[in-house]
Design goal:
alpha/beta; D-Maltodextrin-Binding Protein, domain 2; 6 strands; about 170 residues; six-stranded mixed beta sheet
Length: about 170
């Protein structure tokens, strides 16, 4: 026997509002994903390291492991010091999609698990791309990413990321 559930007017309005909100959030998620995809297709970011670092190229997988702190050193043995941008920055959205092959929220969830379990903390985070460049220039093992249109200051250089389709 099938049972019919009757809701009051107030409950129906609340359910309709919840459905509209769910739809709105879903649409925002699709829009953010589309923006990240368009940013990554045009290589919207470059990877920068300290000018004294002898590295000229790095494999995408190795770079991802470095930013997830699964690798703590450069191939020459010096300490790697990654620095991130805030989650809403277009360069970070593109970097996460291209290098980690995950959306920013998935990477943030990874770090929440690491923090909660006491394993590790995420890389340092700088509020602007100019601050990332400054930070990398003052840390010999520093590595970060910035917009490909940013004018770089002395003390940093761009390295190639291998394994990334242009």
């Amino acid at each position: 026997m099938r049972r019919t559930i009757r809701f009051s007017k107030r409950m129906r309005r609340w359910l309709e509002m919840a459905a509209y909100l769910a739809l709105a959030f879903a649409m925002l998620g699709v829009r953010a994903a589309a923006q990240g995809a368009s940013a990554s297709n045009g290589q919207a970011f470059v990877v920068v390291v300290n000018a004294d670092n002898p590295i000229t190229a790095i494999d995408r997988d190795e770079l991802s492991r470095m930013f997830l702190k699964r690798v703590a050193t450069w191939p020459n043995g010096s300490a790697a010091e990654p620095v991130d941008l805030p989650a809403a920055e277009p360069s970070r959205i593109a970097f996460s999609k291209v290098v980690h092959k995950k959306p920013v929220n998935a990477v943030r969830a990874f770090w929440q698990q690491q923090i909660f379990s006491g394993r590790d903390v995420p890389p340092a985070e700088e509020s602007t791309e100019a601050n990332v460049v400054s930070w990398v220039s003052t840390h010999v093992g520093g590595v970060g990413y910035v917009s490909s249109t940013l004018n770089l200051a002395a003390g940093v250089k761009i390295i190639d990321v291998q394994g990334v389709k242009p």
